[in-house]
Amino acid sequence: MPHIRRFVIRIFVALLTFLIGVAISSVWFLNHYQPAKSTRLLSGPLCREEVVSVESRPAVPLRITISDTACEKPQTANVQFLVENVSTKPISKYEIRGVQTYDELRDEGLSVLTETIEPLQPRQTQIGFLGGGVLKRSGGRPVSELRSFELVVWSITFADGTKWTRS
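Given the sequence above, the corresponding structure tokens read:
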């Protein structure tokens, strides 16, 4: 009888040790192997959904997709976007403009001109940033809240030297 009692105690201790080990391993795994949270590259609150958009035009050789937005002030917007070469030719340079509309003003002066080191091949993508805004109009009067910030493909230079421009 004492042998059976010792055997049961040893089995109980072994089972308890096993369960504690599994529990500790599970807690460690859950704390160390959670999926990485994406880090925002733009700071500030997200823009209202209707503020930032992409001009929709058929047959533009470059597709723009908005990745992130930030609107720290009601008159400004910062946009992270992804461009994709949807043409059949490599692109060596492209210009994206941010057309900003206020109640009393439309501004097309904000742009980013990207000259690629290696041509942007068909179906290849690239990340871009564009942002800013107008705080005052002529005479120093403040502008209204930003109504829209539209990303527009303005011009493209292909690797073979041909150009596409917005008409």
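The chain has one helix and eight strands. Try to locate this feature in the token string yourself.
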